[in-house]
Amino acid sequence: MEPLAALERVVYLLDRALAPGAKVKAFRHAAGIVAALPPDELAARARAGTLTELPGIGPSTGGVIADAVAGRVPAYLERLELDSAVPLGPGEALRAALRGDCHSHSTWSDGDASMEAMGRAARALGHAYLVVTDHSPRMAVSRGLTAERLALQRHELDAVNRLFADEAAAGAAPPFRLLHGLEVDINEDGSLDMDDATLAGLDLVVASPHVKLRMDAKAMTRRLVLAAVHPHVDVLGHCTGRKVPPHGNRPGADFDADLVFAACARHGTAVEVNARPERQDPPEELLALALEWGCKLALDTDAHAPGQLEWANFACDKAAGLGVGDDDVINTWDVERLVAWGRDG
């Protein structure tokens, strides 16, 4: 394994493990340093034991580089492969049926990888599509997209899709497509943080609450119902907004789940099963209620980095444990069916 490939794999696995951002950043920075160095200099430094004299190379990153230069699989990498593995139990059949992921982020907002890198990772996992759903403007801390930036993003997304189509035509890879979406914020009054004309031009819209989650139950119910019945909303994202240990500790929003899920079922809005380890949203009792109402589901990772796309296993296990069937999950559908469903509103 080449040193650069080893460091990039470590970054992927650290993201998969939801490791602290500082650690991921250190290995990503080290990969940038290695990419800029002549291979001969890197090998000479490894032999001389001077790798850590390079600014930004520490004992852990230096050890990975030294092992790779010596022709060994880095010990740090071997441990991380095991420690970060995402288990898959009863959801194995459901995971095999997944055709894509309806909630992901890129460097256009608060993600850590380009749309191309996210697409390549999704394709490597067997997906046929990935919906890029960066944040809307209100999430300024996450570099949310204005309508103007969303239009610019579409140009880049189209260019990446042409690249993927060329690779598929040459037989170098299976067909794969990025879909253009948005995770639009649900305002306190139930309106959406993007104009209707812009939302209408997207392939898929995920609407999620992010702020003011402790508003009273009646107001929160109204807020979520109005989002669920909006004609351009396709998926209600992480509906409670909770964060669970050991990665977080925030109680979920309080609302009348019967009314919210009845609205979703009546208006054809899928309920997201958010697989992020710190979210696992909704909790099982609410997911069971959504199924009682006949809601469609979207088993999503909310991935902000390539390694996090593997978290689909968590959502599949959770859904399978409640007896969810393939056709109840919108991302088991092929891309044409999904896009047609999203556009029909």
What does this protein look like?
With about 350 residues, the protein is of the alpha/beta class. The protein has two domains: about 5-85, Orthogonal Bundle (DNA polymerase, domain 1), CATH 1.10.150; about 90-345, Alpha-Beta Barrel (TIM Barrel). About 45% of the residues lie in helices and about 10% in strands. It is built from 14 helices and seven strands. The longest helix has 23 residues, at about 145-170. The N and C termini lie far apart (about 50 Å).
Keywords:
2 domains, DNA polymerase, domain 1, globular, 345 residues, TIM Barrel, alpha/beta, 7-stranded parallel β-sheet
Task: Find the CATH superfamily of the largest domain.
Answer: Metal-dependent hydrolases
Helix content: 40-55%
Structural class per helix/strand content?
alpha/beta
Poorly predicted spans: none
Order of helices and strands: HHHHHHEHEHEHEHEHEHEHH
What distance separates the N and C termini? 48 Å
Radius of gyration: 21 Å
CATH class of the largest domain: Alpha Beta
Total beta strands: 7
Strand order of the largest sheet: 1-2-3-4-5-6-7
Under CATH, the topology of the largest domain can be stated as TIM Barrel
| Beta-strand content | 5-15%
Give the SSE layout.
Blueprint: H1 3-16, H2 21-36, H3 39-48, H4 59-69, H5 75-83, H6 92-97, E1 100-101, H7 115-124, E2 129-132, H8 147-169, E3 177-185, H9 196-200, E4 204-208, H10 217-228, E5 235-236, H11 257-267, E6 270-274, H12 284-292, E7 297-300, H13 312-320, H14 335-344
Parallel strand pairs: 1-2, 2-3, 3-4, 4-5, 5-6, 6-7
